[in-house]
Amino acid sequence: MLKSNTGSSVQPCAATAGSEAALKAKAGLDDVKLAFVYGSADSDLKAMLDGIKAELPETPIIGNTSFTGIITPEGYITGDQGFVGILAFSDEDLDVGVAASARTEEGPRAIGARLAREAMAAAGKRTPPDYFYMVASPAEEEFYLKGITEVIGRVPFFGGSAADNEIAGKWWIYTDKEIFQDGCAVAFMYSDGELVNEFTGAYHETEHVGIVTKMIGDRTIAEIDGVPALKKYAQWRGMDADYLKGGVLLSESVTNPLGVKDRLGDLVAIRHPMNGNDDYSINVGNKVVEKTAVIMMQASVDELISSTGDTLRTLKGKMTTKPAAYHLVHCGGRRAGIGDRLNEVTDQIIKEADGVPFIVEFTFGEYGSVDDGLNTCGGLMLSFTGIGK
Questions:
Q1: Which of 67, 208, 244, 388 is the most buried (most CB within 10 A)?
Q2: pLDDT in tens, 319-332
Q3: Beta bridge partners of 8
Q4: pTM of the predicted model as reported, rounded to 2 decimal places
C-alpha cells in the first residue's frame, strides 16, 4: 500500500535544511522509493541535496527550484535564506526509475527518447511505466515530451518546469546524482495504484478570438488575423499597445491570457503572453503554430484563488480509491498575480486535502493530460495529481 509524507525546512544552512526536511518526510515510512524535492534557487543546492541524501541514502530524488516558496500541510514555506520541501513515497509494490540530462547538442527530442530508455533501465523494466513525472527548463518542454512519447507511447504524465524567484533564468533541475539549469529529468513509476490528474487553467473564454497568421519560431506570435499580435491583444483589452511592451505584458496578462483548444475541445491550454516586443509581436510561454485559433481568456484574482480549492475538490471527486498523496503544480505566474493573498490559497488547499499529505510547487510551465487527449504542456495552469493507496 502506498504511503506518503512531507517535510520542510527554512534552516539557513542548506545541508541542515535538507537533512531536517528529509528526516520529517521519512517519518513513518518503511522504505522510501521516491522523493520529490523542491527548493529555492537562492540555496546552496548541492549542500541541500547532500543533507537529504544523508537521511535518504538509497532513495531516488527528483525536483527543481520553485518560485518563491512551496505549500505543504504545514502552510506556506518560504525564507529569506532559502527553503526546501519534500514529498516522499513508500510502497513495496512501487518501482521507480529516475533519469536526467542537461541540454546537449543532440537536441531535446533525442534527449527525451534517451531519458525514457534510461528511466526504464533504472527501474529494472523493459516496458513503459504506468505513469511518469517530468521536469524541464522553461523553453523546450514539448520536444522533450515528444522524444519520451516516441519510446513509451501515450502514458499519463504530470509535472512542471523549473522556476526561480526573479524570472531571470536562475532555475535549477536536480536528482540525487546531478544538478543543471537547462535540460530535463523524469521519474517513471510502475504501480497498480490509481493516478488521476486534473489539468486546467480555470479561465473563462471571452468572445475575443483570432487566427494566428504569422509566427516567429515556436513561441513568438507575430500576427493575429493579419494584425500585429500585440496590437490585436491590446485592442481586445481596450489598452494601449505601447504600454504593453516589454515585461509589462507578463503581469497584465495573468488575468487575461491566451488559450488554444485541443482537438476535441476538452481542454483550453493556456499560452501566457510573456513579453511585448518592439515589433508588436508577443512572446508566449509555450509552442503555438500558424493557423491556430487563439482565444483571450479571463479570470479575476478572486477566481484564481478559488480555482485552487475547486480544482482539488474536482480531483478528489474523480478518484475511485482513497488518496495517499497529492502532488500539486501551481503556476508561478498565477502565484504572482495572487500576491499577498496567497494565504487564502493555502487555507483552501489544506482544507480540501483533509489530512492527506501534499506538496505544492510553483512553476514556469505546467504539464498534464485530460481524458483521452494527448499529454499537454501549458502555462498559467494548475496540474493537480492524486495518487491512490
A1: 67
A2: 999 999 999 999 99
A3: 85
A4: 0.97
